[in-house]
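[INFO] parsing input record for DUF2237 domain-containing protein
[DEBUG] input buffer:
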Amino acid sequence: MSERQPDRNVLGGSLQPCGTDPLTGFYRDGCCSTGPEDLGRHTICAVVTAEFLEHQRSIGNDLSTPVPEYRFPGCCRAIAGV
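[DEBUG] output buffer:
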């Protein structure tokens, strides 16, 4: 069996923390690390607008409301002026 390669960013470098308050990422490590148990493939970190979050909520993909039973703190917040 081959050894798992470390996660890399799109430029081939090491992942950098993206969200630490609250702690984001599938492993709640602040990065976009993933593994075989991540069935949803949580591998993207992005700055989004309030309009994007509202659109996602309107189509049933609420990215900002915490869901404690899934240990989901709400992963997205819009940045003012973006």
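[INFO] The chain has two domains: 1-44, 46-81.
[INFO] shutting down worker
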